Amino acid sequence: MTPPCRVFPASQLPAEIQFVGGKKRKGARMDLSACELLSLTQYDCQIDRPERSNSPVRCWPVQRWFRRCQDLKGTFTVETTMWEGNQLPLLDGDKEYRDRNSAIGR
Q1: Could you tell me which residue, 10 or 89, shows the higher pLDDT?
Q2: Of 73, 66, 61, 58, whose CA–CA distance to 24 is shortest?
Q3: Within 10 Å of residue 97's Cβ, how many Cβ atoms?
Q4: How would you write 69-101 as a 3-class SS string?
Q5: CB burial class (10 A; 0-12, 13-18, 19+) of residue 94?
Q6: What gap in Å lies between CA 106 and CA 104, rounded to an integer?
Q7: Per-residue DSSP letters for 32-83?
Q8: N or C: which end of the chain has fewer CB within 10 A?
Q9: C-alpha span between 26 and 71 (Å, rounded)
């Protein structure tokens, strides 16, 4: 079983990355916005009528964002999707995905 993850608001992410394992990172204060920006596209797929074997499957892209940073011990990657907010460009279909999930309460 994986260890429990700390939960905190996205706005606290720049402060949270200053520590690793409860100890302050070595080196200067980390500027999250200066770290390399990476992206990953995953898909959320739904079967229209699961009771039918030939039912169409519809998929919507889900864009996730990450930052690759470096401290004195090497590089580390942190997911920044919520922290980036709407500052970054949407992929084709991403707005439709957000609108659809807002309508169904996701």
Answers
A1: 10
A2: 73
A3: 19
A4: EEECCEEEEEECHHHHHHHCCCCCCHHHHHHHH
A5: middle
A6: 6
A7: GGGSEEEEEEEEEEEES-TTSTT--EEEEEEEEEEEEEEETTEEEEEE-HHH
A8: N
A9: 7
